[in-house]
Amino acid sequence: MHSRLQHILLGALAGLFFWALQEGGFATGLLGARGIFTLAIAGTVFFGTGLAMLGEIGARKAGLAAVLIAIPATLLGWWQAGGLVFGETLMGQMDFSMLALFVLATVPMPFAMVVAQQGLTRWADYPALFTHAWNIVVRYGAAWLFLAVVWLLLYLSSQLLESVGIDLLRQIFRLDWLALGLSGAVLGLGLAVVTELEEMISPFLLLRLLRLLLPVVMVVVVLFLLGLVLNSGAIDAVGFSHATTLIAISLAAILLVSVAVEREDFEAVVAPILRLSTLGLALILPLLAAVSAWSAWRSISDLGWTPARVAQSVLIVLIAGYGIGYAVAVLRGRNWMARVRRVNIAMAVALLAMAVAWLTPLIDANRIATKSQIARYEAGAIRPTDLPLYEMAQNWGKAGQNGIATLRTRASGDPALARALSSVATLNGAAQPDVGAAQLAGLRALIALPPGAPAIPEALLQAIAKDNGWPQSALCTPGTQAQPSCALVMADLRPDLPGNEAILVRDDGSYAPVRFYYLMKDHWVDGGALRAISGKNGTMGAVIAAIAQGQFQIVPSGISALQAGGKTLVPQLR
Prior knowledge:
Layout: H1 2-22, H2 32-57, H3 59-81, H4 90-93, H5 95-106, H6 108-118, H7 126-162, H8 168-172, H9 176-196, H10 204-211, H11 214-230, H12 242-261, H13 272-303, H14 307-331, H15 336-358, H16 365-378, H17 389-395, H18 397-411, H19 415-422, E1 425-427, E2 430-432, H20 437-446, E3 447-448, H21 458-467, E4 486-491, E5 501-506, E6 514-520, E7 523-529, H22 540-548, E8 562-564, E9 567-569
Parallel strand pairs: 3-4
Antiparallel strand pairs: 1-2, 4-5, 5-6, 6-7, 8-9
Helix pairs in contact: 1-2, 1-9, 2-3, 2-5, 2-6, 2-9, 3-5, 3-6, 5-15, 6-7, 7-9, 11-12, 11-13, 12-13, 12-14, 13-14, 14-15, 14-16, 16-18, 17-18, 18-19
Transmembrane segments: 37-55, 62-81, 96-116, 137-157, 177-197, 209-230, 242-261, 273-297, 309-331, 343-363
Keywords: Membrane, Transmembrane, Transmembrane helix
Protein name: DUF4153 domain-containing protein
């Protein structure tokens, strides 16, 4: 019971942490966007790893291990953030960096648990590492499933109660802090129960099922290599890129070989067909790595570097390490399974090293890609219209935007390049495509304004459209009775900000129905969600109708502040 309470408390704290982050108050405070991003990494890694290890090694050791894992991940995340442009496209710039951070957070956990239980000298105890790693996978999978079932039950309960006029649950779970705190607590409880019942809910059933895939993957890989020889090395483009498909099947082969050799020889595959399939995949893996490298190099030669191709190359290097290690282990004869396990430990360390390199200037994928594409343009190997200008502007961070600036200096002597660049607008230092005038006019017509109010500034409309994915999203779609579902009020709401600010009210099922926008350096910024501090039983539809009729006032909120020592301290709203 004590362990369950610890899991529930830590999970609830995790949920409240993420609620505090999403409130938006930090973003305009001292930390800034980069600080908030770094804090999010720190909290995610600490709570995620702490919950994973708590049931096995206890609260004190799990907390210490989580801190030790979170510190390097946080520092490297902060370093990586220095090359990013914070805005709507942040996640587009972080695809592979998030994978590197995930590696830094997850790979050390089994090692930390072994050290906590057996001491530093036993850090490479493979049976324990294998068990801890797969236990974490199964526990988190079961706990997330439990959380989904709980929320489904709460939703159905809410619907049932509302059918008889009781909306208590719906009103309660409109409180974000409660919803996230409860989610964390339920997840923690699920992890605690699964840990207690690890003999009943163990990963070994899953591992036995995965073993059955060995012959299938082996046959597919052999047929592919035979077809490659018969086709004289030609590969037809089907579905994903060649290199991506080859990398995926190579990673599957690595996983299956690791599953087949298990923790100890007496637990490894015994059936002849499974054993032969394991040996075959171990020996063929270097060939898969070589074909993957050849396919990736063809793409790079034809199309230049992109961040995705840099990531593919890193993965191919790691696959080659596994492949060479596995092949040598098998070819040396007896005790090859024990050598495969040692290769897995060595490659786990190599994986961590690659993740660190990716998050530092040692492997700056955005810079590599930007230099490559500009060099191809300057060499005449690519037409201006074929340059990945949108990707450079949106997804390649500051390096990509510096590349756009470099190309703009070349545009005066190349009309085709100037035309290509003209489609890439710049906002807040980040190049972003503008929403068309006709589409903006359509959005403007859907937003109700107070009588006599001036037209919504085009820059504000652009910000609202981009924040909400207009015109693809159903933003501000009128209700069944043709009533407007959005309204906007502009007024000088915050004396500390220049000019007027704007409040956008929505009644279209939005998670955050009231948003605040303000001007910063001549562009509009989403200042976060607003909340009602009185009249909580009213509806957003009634608010929108009142605004459209001019039945509103700009009034003081009634909150007083403490002013001392050059600072103004404002109480947080509940």
